[in-house]
Amino acid sequence: MRMTLPHHSLIAWQRADDLFIDLHVLSRSFPPIERFELASQLRRAAFSVPANIAEGFGRPTTGEKLQFLQVACGSLAEVGYCLHAAKRLGHIDEPLYLKFVLRVRRTSAPLRGLMKSMGREHP
User: Fold this and answer.
1) CA 28 from centroid of its chain's CA atoms
2) Cα distance between residue 85 and residue 29, in whole Å
3) Residue 67: CB atoms within 10 Å
4) Per-residue pLDDT tens over the stretch 20-45
């Protein structure tokens, strides 16, 4: 029997989860010098997005849910910066960068929509 958790049906969580997995795999291709630096930070930020959505939906009040969704939104912005830095440092090329930036935006849209539906939109 497969257990489904409340956040599993959320498009924002599904996209964030897929993005984390793909960025985790991508970060393995970074040079060894980045193992404990940019690659690690990218993985942590990307992990934080679906993890905070999940944690928010485990909270009893709307205010608590929103707080965790705001953290997820901030972590998603951090993912965007990590990708920018990886491109500038030559760890990923422009087409791959643009592909992942689009995915960050496609994750952000339902996340912001979810926040707005709960009464607060992140700037």
Assistant:
1) 17
2) 15
3) 16
4) 999 999 999 999 988 889 999 999 99
Q: Which structure tokens are listed for 2?
A: 């497969």
Dihedral of the CA atoms 6, 100, 78, 16 (nearest 10)?
10
How many angstroms separate the CA atoms of 38 and 121, rounded? 29
Tokens 């707005």 correspond to: 116
The type of residue at 94 is: E
Instruction: Give the phi and the psi of residue 44 in degrees, each rounded to 5.
Output: -65, -45
Query: How far is the CA of 89 from the CAs of 13, 27, 67, 85, 93, in angstroms?
Result: 29, 13, 33, 6, 10
Express each pLDDT in 80-109 by its tens digit: 999 999 999 999 999 999 999 999 999 999
**What is the per-residue burial (b if ≥16 Cβ within 10 Å, else e) of 72-104?**
bbebbebbbebbebbbeeebbeeeebeebeebb
